[in-house]
Fold this sequence. Notes:
Blueprint: H1 2-10, E1 16-17, E2 19-25, E3 28-34, E4 38-43, E5 46-50, E6 55-57, E7 60-61, E8 64-65, E9 77-82, E10 88-92, H2 96-99, H3 102-118, E11 121-127, E12 130-135
Antiparallel strand pairs: 1-8, 2-3, 3-9, 4-5, 4-10, 6-7, 11-12
Amino acid sequence: MEVLNDAYFNTKCQGSSTTCILTLMCDIVHTVNLGDSGFVAIRDRVIVYKSKIPQKGFDYPFQLGNGVKFDDSSAIQEINVTVRTWDVIVMFTDGLFDNVYYTELEKLVRDGLVDLCELGIFWRNCSCGRFIFEEQ
């Protein structure tokens, strides 16, 4: 939240943006989210968490900006979600779910993980919150 507040209060240029910033600390995903950006958590090939996408109206998301018609940092959502080893987090910006259904995303992630396994690439949990790729 501090990063977004600093960016908001120190930006002089006109413009606006939606945002999703995510940090992983052991088994907690902490996010700050504004507008039609967000994330999903996938466990055992199924979406177990979808961040909410608040909007003022249809196709009218909250946006952080310094103009009169934009929102300030008070509109930002802070979310904590518990995750497990092997969960997959997919972050997105506006437009993904205008074009891809949640079930399609589950299939894309599942197929992508199968492809990695077929290539002999696996994740090894090195320490809390850190993963590396290694060839087997």
